[in-house]
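Q: What does the assembled structure look like for these inputs?
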Amino acid sequence: MEKKHILMILGVIILVIIPLIIYAGKGEEEGYFGGADDAAEDIITEVNPNYQPWFSPIWEPPSGEIESLLFALQAAIGAIIIGYFIGYNKAKVELKSQS
Amino acid sequence: MHIMEGYLPPMWCAIWYILSGIVVGYGIIKINQLLKEMPEVKPLLAVAGAYMFVLSSLKLPSVTGSCSHPCGNGLSAVLFGVPITAVLATIVLLFQALLLAHGGLTTLGANIFSMGVMGPLAGVIVWKLLKGKINSTWAVMLAAIAADWMTYITTSIQLTLAFPGEDPVRTLMVFLSIFAVTQIPLAIAEGLLTAVLWDKIKELRPDLLLKLGVIDESEVPHYTQAMDTGGAE
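A:
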């Protein structure tokens, strides 16, 4: 891993941590760290008080736990594919340079 | 960028379904073509899709105090272009609509249009403008930022079109302040991550990038030298 890449990943971590520090101690009850998608939903009902959603999800995760399970699954599926690709090719390159 | 299930009037659902449908249909043809012509890029296609899976599951906090997620669509846009990215976005969005109640089936067309069409298009434009002028790592980073950001701008426009309110300009500003402003730091984070992954791909499989025509030999001198001496396949 090059220094450039370490700095880049550090940059990502800093970008994620800054809001956690700025709004430290505040939570969802005060309106922080909610989803932007939900915020948009509120605006729609504000601009258009008469709007009734005409369709609802055919299935919803029954609880926050199940939702986080499925989100973790989504990330895991992606991560294993990327990890496999990098690991497989890394080993191939190394084997080739040995022979 | 997910427009919630049922939160678009049927007319707009239909319009976005038709527009996205055309691009996705063309993308399926392109994927078949690509895999027939270069079956060896299949793993890279999987990585591009997997990257969208990972990034769109990460809801990150932003300086505006709300959370949103990056899209991962820039990498795929640079590698495979808009139509194929639209197909990959469809898979991700279907997963989230069916299993997570994020987005929805009625709004699928609209969500594909933002994450699979307009975002990638912005990424491709930035990429094309910068390609060959700066190192591909930085070009990819900026393309990924553009793709991510444009995805959310598109969502704001889509919502304003469907719900203009009394003053459409003001409504657009409100939606932009929710989506586009929140997204600025997240888009930068996505750009950085995409650049790291890009460099890894360039280091390990430069042959695939050369074959896809996204970089030229001058970017990977070690690899092309090795090829000349018969050191690589």
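Residues 19 and 69 of chain A are 25 Å apart (CA to CA).
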